[in-house]
Design brief:
- This protein is an alpha/beta fold and 280 residues long.
- The protein contains twelve helices and nine strands.
- The protein has two domains: 2-64; 75-276, 3-Layer(aba) Sandwich (Rossmann fold).
- Strands 5-4-3-6-7-9-8 form a seven-stranded mixed sheet, sandwiched between helices. A two-stranded antiparallel ribbon has the order 1-2.
- Helix 2 (20-32) packs antiparallel against helix 4 (49-63) and helix 6 (96-106) runs parallel beside helix 7 (123-131).
- The relative contact order is 0.11.
- The mean pLDDT is 96.
- The protein binds S-adenosylmethionine.
- The site of S-adenosylmethionine (SAM) has 22 residues, from helix 7, strand 4 and helix 10.
């Protein structure tokens, strides 16, 4: 195994992959079913020829720009493993800011009903329901295929009985109120998409990225219908791009909401806008 690991990480480094060591480890760990301590202790493990072929194939895919999570079809988010397919966004660590800030806000009094607009893999809603065993949720997406992935993940994490899945253009098919609304909508200005890293541009679905000319199209649409979805004491948590804090704050306020906080991600960048109905 040691020789394969060494050659895999060297070939990834030569190919310009940012994290050759980590990527090689994850691939070998998955295919060989070994632990991190096997790498640390330097244990030598016999590799069968079919395993060698699979590793080679995965290293080639990584060199061609496919992220490791896409190659393996799974991604860890909030300590849970989510299945991902080409139909859903690869969940990002920054999005955990929504989970962290909502948990802190609600403390010992969790919301009963949660709405996730643009659920994708279901990672946000499923992580929240995992934390709050009494809560129920509605997962909305315009993509039927994404909803199927979210449903599979909900079953995997045993929260499927607490989620309804609704195919809808944002709020179009919704007629109920929630204590908590969460969303990580598409927010990349469309002219920027061609310049994104190939890992993103070639592998995340365009529906999950494209925020229209300004990047703000989804927020405009969501905020315009939010009034009838959010309870009097309810809260909304919306992920934003690194430079969208002022624009999204203005859009929320123009729709009559009060911005309660901007929550920073681990890099210190304002990543989540928290809103309430204020004094309305
Ligand atoms: C940035 S992804 C977020 C996925 C997931 N919530 C996450 O954080 O990993 C945005 C999601 O919004 C969905 N979406 C895009 N436009 C939509 C619309 N008009 N109505 C409902 N969902 C939409 C996409 O299909 C995609 O799953």
């Amino acid at each position: 195994m040691k020789d394969i690991y060494k050659s895999a990480k060297e070939s990834l480094a030569r190919g310009g992959v940012d994290t050759p060591d980590l990527d090689a480890r994850i691939i070998l760990r998955t295919i060989l079913g070994i632990t991190d301590s096997d790498f640390i202790t330097g244990a030598d493990i016999k590799v069968e020829s079919h395993e060698r072929d699979r590793i080679k194939n995965m290293i080639e895919r990584r060199l061609a720009g496919e992220p490791v999570s896409r190659i393996l079809g799974e991604r860890e988010f909030w300590g849970l493993t989510f299945r991902i397919t080409p139909d859903v966004l690869d969940p990002r660590p920054d999005t955990e800011t929504i989970i962290d800030s909502a948990l802190k806000r609600f403390g010992t009094n969790p919301p009963k009903k949660i709405l996730d607009l643009g659920t994708g893999s279901g990672c946000i809603l499923i992580a929240l329901l995992h934390e709050w065993p009494q809560a129920q949720g509605v997962a909305v997406d315009m993509s039927e295929k994404a909803l199927a992935v979210a449903e599979e993940n909900a079953r995997l994490h045993k929260v499927d009985s607490r989620i309804r899945f609704i195919c809808s253009d944002w709020d179009s098919n919704l007629n109920e109120c929630f204590d908590l609304v969460v969303s990580n909508p598409p927010y990349i200005p469309n002219q920027v998409i061609a310049n994104l890293d190939r890992e993103v541009r070639n592998h995340d679905p365009i529906l999950a990225l494209d925020g229209g000319d300004s990047g703000l199209q989804a927020y405009k649409k969501i905020f315009s219908g939010l009034d009838r979805l959010i309870n009097a004491e309810g809260r909304g948590f919306f992920e934003i791009g690194y430079d969208q804090q002022n624009d999204v704050t203005r859009l929320a306020e123009d729709s009559g909401f009060c911005v309660e906080a901007i929550h920073a991600d681990l890099a210190g960048i304002g990543r989540v806008v928290e809103i309430s109905r204020g004094d309305k």
